[in-house]
Write a structure and sequence with these properties.
Blueprint: E1 9-19, E2 28-42, E3 47-52, H1 55-58, H2 65-76, E4 84-90, H3 100-115, H4 122-133, H5 137-144, E5 147-153, E6 156-162, E7 169-174, H6 181-186, H7 194-213, H8 216-222, H9 229-232, H10 238-242, E8 251-256, E9 263-267, H11 270-284, E10 287-292, E11 299-303
Parallel strand pairs: 3-4
Antiparallel strand pairs: 1-2, 1-11, 2-4, 2-5, 5-6, 7-9, 7-10, 8-9
Helix pairs in contact: 2-3, 3-4, 7-8
Length: about 300
């Protein structure tokens, strides 16, 4: 029996994320407490038993982001590809802007590190995930949990994080159909007016401190954006419907979740969640996911 086949089964739990948060385009994200859960063990051949959201797509052996990324990493680092039997429970909607691709790629990296015995620590994991994902904010939030700001130094990802206020809640409004990140990026202009850039710099600076200090009174201003949301509004119809709700029934701020089309609604506390959810539901007709912010990132456990 090879050393690889002696590797214990690996259990993973990775949170959803909401990136590009308000004005924090490609820079700010927060983890949410619905998850991708995986248990993987060495096997004679690859298999995926999936349940939860988009289970049929998750169970594919071809065109499967986790399997393709896992195999590619092992090939790139000249390690044997260990076939895996995977059991998966997916709670993250695919293609909705809730960090499904970041969670999938990080899961694949964690599997490759474990079964390929690569020995990577957090810094290397984030670097590889950033190279695959193309932006650092959602991979950092998924791996580390909490509210994160990310900056790149070459391919290295430098992160500052804080725990979101315990009392704040999130509502994710999900439209019927997904939206690809490439399509969402294609509508963005190449050049912005200086006044829009300055406004976003002001908002994103306040946003970080509002989360760190629990400044609910600042969130309305801190989540205003002029860089990506105005241009994406025509292809994310829930956003213009829900933005005007800020200030009603404890709603502190509204923003696209990731590149959309889902919309993140931040609520000041549990006592406002029911009324806020009812308001969002009545205005949008969307499926709603009520969530806490996750202070915990990836969870890993090895079973011998």
């Amino acid at each position: 029996m090879s050393d690889h086949s002696k590797s214990g089964a690996l259990r993973l739990r990775l949170p959803a994320t909401s990136a590009n948060l308000g004005p924090g385009f490609d820079a700010v994200a927060v983890a949410l407490d619905f998850f991708l859960e995986i248990e993987a063990a060495p096997a004679r051949e690859f298999s995926v038993n999936a349940s939860g959201r988009n289970a049929d797509r998750c169970a594919r052996l071809e065109d499967n982001l986790i399997l393709e990324t896992y195999k590619q990493i092992l090939r790139d680092h000249e390690q044997a590809i260990v076939p895996l039997a995977i059991r998966m429970a997916n709670g993250i909607p695919l293609g909705m802007g809730c960090g499904s691709s970041a969670a999938a790629r990080l899961a694949a990296i964690a599997l490759a590190v474990h079964f390929g015995k690569l020995g990577w620590e957090t810094e290397r994991v984030l670097e590889e995930a950033y190279k695959l994902e193309g932006h650092p904010d959602n991979v950092a939030a998924c791996w580390l949990g909490g509210f994160v700001t990310a900056v790149c130094e070459g391919t290295k990802v430098r992160v500052a994080r804080t725990d979101p206020p315990e009392e704040w809640r999130a509502i994710v409004a999900l439209p019927e159909g997904p939206l690809s990140t490439s399509k969402a990026r294609a509508v963005l202009p190449a050049v912005y007016p200086l006044e829009d850039v300055v406004a976003n710099l002001q908002s994103v600076a306040v946003l970080a401190l509002a989360f760190a200090q629990g400044r609910a009174d600042l969130l309305r201003l801190a989540m205003r954006d002029r860089i990506h949301q105005p241009h994406r509004a025509p292809i994310t119809p829930l956003l213009p419907i829900l933005l005007p709700l800020v200030g009603e029934h404890g709603i502190l701020g509204v923003a696209l979740s990731g590149a959309g089309p889902a919309v993140l609604v931040i609520v000041g506390g549990e006592e406002s969640l029911a009324d806020a959810s009812k308001l969002v539901q009545n205005r949008s007709g969307a499926e709603l996911l009520a969530s806490r912010f996750s202070r915990v990132g990836v969870y890993q456990a090895v079973e011998k």
